[in-house]
Specification:
This protein is α/β, with parallel strands linked by helices and about 350 residues long. The protein has 13 helices and 15 strands. The strands form four sheets. An eight-stranded parallel barrel has the order 1-2-3-5-8-9-11-15, surrounded by six helices. A two-stranded antiparallel sheet has the order 6-7. Strands 10-13 form a two-stranded parallel sheet. The chain is globular and about 60 Å long.
Length: about 350
């Protein structure tokens, strides 16, 4: 699909020709542009417990605030730098929160053996009374692996290891006995204990931006995170944030998943939220800042228009109502319905949740 075609579809949805929202008992009859039923929105906040967020002591309070705001899930990343340990942190949150689901976004597979990880995850699900979402990826920050003396293999090896881990977790998190003979992991009759509260097992989330990672996710995951492509040094490609590229990734997932696609929930994280009464002027200022190199985490490989920035799923600019409508259009055009925000964006996004709740 060309960018112009994607923009045309966006205009169609805004004009009301295609359904843009869903609510009530007839929701299943409304379809996305990809021909799948609209899923209800869900919302995830995140916290790292780093110095910028107030450290480990304030971490629990951040999760409790997310619960009060109405976020559905609170997730913790997995890095060896300035942040808390995700497994221990989720253990604390099982007792410090009541309703909000708890997850990892995402665990680095190379940091832990899958059998040991399954034990910890099952324990968290039991202690939380069935609120766990398991986010896991191949691990991508090479400097962390090197600093810790852990092997950082080629992308192909890391993906193959993740493939085996997901197969092992699928069995153990069902409370079943696992015997597995893989190239990288061998498991000989280990029983998954404790048995998680959720059945058949806690949902598993993985994802990425490249075709191989997305196909692997389509094979295993209940939730797939669709993320922009990054460079080898971890910078995001500006071209990867467009609506066009996002639709291409979702189409790849749909093809790889086959009949299973309808059962997969698609997630994305909004990386920038700007509340303003003038969307176009703010978008122009953002593009100017990008051109001047003021966003060091971005690699500028294309020149985007104001329309392309405003249509991007990963950038939210406007009033609360305008951002809510933008998110509706993203769901309509991509099937993505599970919205994530970064720790520093939680307060700004909170007023948007009531505008979309129940749709």
């Amino acid at each position: 699909m060309t960018e112009a075609a994607a923009s045309d579809r966006l205009r169609v949805a805004r004009n009301g020709t295609a359904p843009a929202t869903t609510a009530g008992p007839d929701a299943d009859a409304e379809l996305t542009a990809l021909g799948t039923p609209l899923r209800p929105f869900r919302f995830a906040a995140a916290g790292e417990g780093n110095k910028q967020e107030g450290g480990a002591r304030k971490f629990v309070q951040t999760a409790q605030t997310a619960e009060e705001y109405g976020f559905d899930t609170f997730v913790v990343p997995d890095h060896l730098g300035d942040q808390i340990g995700p497994i221990a942190a989720l253990g604390a949150l099982t007792q410090a929160t009541e309703r909000i689901r708890l997850g990892t976004s995402v665990l680095a597979n190379g940091f832990r053996h899958p059998v040991v990880l399954a034990k910890d995850l099952a324990t968290i699900d039991v202690l939380s009374k069935g609120r766990l979402e398991v986010g896991i990826g191949a691990g991508w920050k090479q400097d962390e692996f090197v600093a810790a003396g852990l092997p950082y293999e080629s992308p192909g090896v890391r993906l193959a290891k993740l493939d085996e881990t997901l197969s092992i977790l699928d069995v153990l998190l069902r409370g079943q006995e696992c015997t597995f003979e893989g190239k990288y992991y061998q498991v000989h009759g280990v029983k998954g204990t404790p048995r998680p509260r959720q059945g058949p097992r806690p949902p598993i989330c993985t994802g990425g931006g490249g075709p191989k990672m997305l196909r692997l996710a389509a094979k295993h995951a209940d939730i797939i995170s669709v993320v922009p492509v990054t460079t080898k040094n971890g910078k995001g490609l500006l071209s990867g944030i467009t609506l066009e590229k996002t639709i291409e990734k979702v189409n790849l997932i749909k093809e790889a998943a086959g009949e299973r696609f309808a059962d997969i929930e698609l997630n994305w994280a909004i990386t920038a939220i700007v509340i303003t009464d003038d969307r176009e002027k703010t978008a122009e200022m953002a593009l100017s800042a990008i051109d001047r190199g003021l966003h060091p985490d971005l690699e500028v490989d294309v020149k985007l228009s104001v329309e392309e920035i405003l249509a991007s799923p990963y950038v939210a600019i406007g009033t609360f109502e305008e951002i809510a409508e933008q998110i509706r259009q993203v769901r309509q055009l991509t099937s993505m319905s599970y919205v994530g925000v970064f720790p520093t964006q939680m307060d700004a996004f909170a007023p948007i949740i009531p505008l979309l709740r129940g749709e």
